[in-house]
Design brief:
Blueprint lengths: L13 H6 L4 E6 L6 H10 L3 E6 H5 L10 E4 L11 H10 L2 H12 L4 E5 L1 H7 L13 E3 L7 E9 L14 E8 L3 E3 L10 E5 L21 E5 L5 E4 L26 H11 L1
Parallel strand pairs: 1-2, 1-3, 3-4, 4-11
Antiparallel strand pairs: 5-8, 6-7, 6-9, 9-10, 10-11
Helix pairs in contact: 4-6
């Protein structure tokens, strides 16, 4: 039962995009990531200049994160979808001082934003020691089902500080889920509510605690979080895979051609103005 708390026909950055230069955003990928094309399309449509950046480009100093307004760690099947793929990606940053310093400097800048999806979510969560205000983030471990889960799930946008979800609080949206290690595992208490950005829910909008409405077994259905100031957001589902309504396996007939999920990318452009 999808419901929207905003009008998907309104583009809050249409005038801004028409008169402003396009800020560059790094579409970051590692071996095997397969979501970079859709992610680049989403940011291009929202008025950014999406730039393909492979980790080897940073390692070999062909580019530097300081050149970009935003960073997006994409999802897919990194490292052949081996266990801990996102953690392996993060380790390649944490254990190389030049890369660690480069990422830490980017995260420290209050005029920069970052997004991590699926493997990128697991990767950024493993970098929380160098991300300001991310100390309460969980680790993401194997689904309770013990298998890869690929389905259309219902999520609720909660009231958080995430810049990506500005004006979307309370919306119930279907989204593509595709992961084998999406269960949020907190070391202590759950993150503060202002840092919980998205939850798997049932048709009534209540947090999903049972399978398959909760496909991975995360407590309270938590599947998206942000840091304390909302600049950096991580999520396990794939909103970039449903940029148009026809991309859904099912969607309400009255939805416009552009998917409501495009709003999160518009929000990022609005924040950058």
């Amino acid at each position: 039962k999808p419901t929207l708390s905003f009008d998907p026909l309104i583009n809050p950055v249409s005038a801004l995009v028409a008169r402003q230069a396009k800020p560059p955003v790094a579409i970051l990928r590692e071996q095997g990531v397969n979501g970079q094309i859709e992610m680049a399309a989403a940011f291009d449509q929202a008025g950014f200049r999406a730039v393909d950046v492979h980790m080897s480009d940073l390692l070999e100093k062909r580019t530097n994160l300081s050149e970009f307004q935003g960073l997006v760690a994409c999802g897919g099947f990194s490292y052949g979808d081996v266990l801990g793929a996102g953690r392996g990606w993060a380790a390649s940053i944490l254990f190389q001082s030049e890369l660690r310093d480069q990422f830490a400097a980017f995260f420290d800048r209050t005029d920069r934003f970052a997004l991590g999806v699926c493997n990128g979510c697991q990767m950024l969560s493993s970098l929380k020691e160098i991300i300001p205000g991310a100390e309460s983030w969980p680790n993401f471990v194997t689904n309770r089902s013990g298998q890869f889960e690929a389905r259309l799930s219902l999520v609720k946008v909660t009231d958080s500080t995430s810049l990506f979800f500005n004006g979307m609080t309370g919306s119930l949206l279907p989204v593509a889920t595709a992961h084998g290690e999406g269960r949020a595992q907190f070391s202590g208490q759950l993150s503060p509510h202002t840092q919980i950005a998205m939850q798997y829910v049932n048709a009534d909008g209540d947090p999903a605690v049972e399978y398959p409405q909760n496909p991975n077994g995360s407590p309270a259905g938590i599947t998206g979080l942000c840091n304390t100031d909302g600049r950096i957001t991580i999520m396990m589902p794939h909103p970039e895979r449903t940029l148009r309504t026809v991309n859904f396996s099912w969607a309400p007939e009255h939805w416009p051609e552009v998917s409501p999920w495009q709003r999160i990318f518009h929000n990022a452009r609005h924040w950058v103005k």
